[in-house]
Sequence to fold (428 residues):
Amino acid sequence: MSAPQTVLAATRRLVGLTALRWLPVGLTTPIMVLLAQSRGLSLAEIGLLFTVHGAVVILLELPTGGLADVLGRRPVVIAGAVLHLVSCLVHATASSVGGFLVGVLLLGLGRVLDSGPVEAWYVDTVHGIDPDADVAPGLARHSAADGGGLALGAVVGGSLPGLLGGGNALAAPYLAAAVLDLVFIGAVLRLLSESRPPRVGSARTALAQGLRAVPATVGGAVRLSVGDGPMRLVLLVTGIGGVGLVACELLGPVRFGELAGGPDDGAAVYGVVLAIAFAAAAAGAMATPALRRLLRGSTRATCAALSVLGGLALAAVAGPDVLVVVATGFVLHYVAHGSAWPLLSAVLHTRVTAAQRATAVSAMSLAMALGGILGNLAIPPLVDRAGPDSGFLVVAGVVGLGALACLRLPRTTARDTAVVTGEQSVGY
Fold:
């Protein structure tokens, strides 16, 4: 299929590809811990696997982002999808820590490969159609499709084991996710068109040349991240968001298990609340442009308000033992996070050139992964000493304080001419 000719057409492709990408992930999210536990893994071992996943992301996020910039978006996205597919099959059949470790390593590799190329393709395509176009509305729809795919997947994935029954029913969502990965690969081949010059020589030669070019691409992005004030702020706020999400993932099942009276009922409740949270995050992302208009077009004021909302929401999760209150706080935190992401992404895209765009998106994912690692290391000891409620409250304070960083972001997401042309800019 030829390249899209309008911004609307490009946005439709972005939304479709994003939904297909995250639907398989949503299928497995509600049952990943339950499947590992059913096959003999302890919570400590499962936490170690999550840490390994985060470490893979930290080590490889930037190099693989650079690989997408020099080799092309489509082949890297397809490689990531293939790795995710194999990871699902390994998880479905794993019976030991070693087996799940292999699955997690494959999952992490797939994640870092496809974390930025589709979004980078969209921004470059839109700017090719209209150099002055604001990508924030399209990125908001991108985030909505992300949350919508996760929400639908969580509902289906949480329901499949109960519908199918049997001793291995918990593996069914992973098998279904593998099938959907095949559908996604087909969609990428059809919809993600690139206008790149034909390669000369074999695929191995092209790959070798691309890998040699990665250090320069990554180095330029790192220098820009360190030297550009707005980008530093974007990465800081993104890292804080990673800490907040880890608190929800680690402590959410425990909290809802307490409220429901047991782990089985708690898992069912958690699955429903998680699906609602994903859907609400999607709705929040769609509402972001309207919220920004309400706040006089100020990106910094909108992000600050969302940070405060996220902190208050986490505090509510640690509040009274009332399911409706706790669930509402949990959902509102996801709304705040989902609403802030397109604004932070839009700021990031004003600070980089097309040659570094996928790498810069990967830097944003890396910042979130670093926040997640920090949360994985800090939250469990805190919970052991003071309980889950204290863990939520401390993280709530950290998320709320992120508003101070947001207040120093650029006021708008208009493209910075100095940055786009490769010059340094000191203006915020």
Observations:
- Confidence is low (pLDDT under 50) at residues 198-203, 416-428.
- The chain has one domain: 7-420.
- The first helix runs from residue 7 to 28.
